[in-house]
User: What shape does this take?
Amino acid sequence: VGRFGGSDIMGGDAMNRPGRESHKKSAEEVLGMPHVTLKHVEEVMAAVHDEQKTQQQQQLSQNEDEAIINNEESIECFIPTPSSVYDTVEASVKYKS
Assistant: This one.
């Protein structure tokens, strides 16, 4: 079970509702919603990264031979945006024409 509910990494149970076709909103789409900040979006992105990394490590530990081969395909580290640009990024997304 994902940290934010449901059985999938993010998305939760709503992802499987008819009409959704498993579409996930982009970070830009979510940031454009009222009362959502870049910090909130990045917290979710970091949580998803952690879940994916954990899943990858579990899969690789099940088959150590493949772990050596697939080690190069490891998930990159999540690097958050510097807080000094939060206002600029949020404004450019929320007020774009």
The chain has a mean pLDDT of 77. The first helix runs from residue 27 to 31.
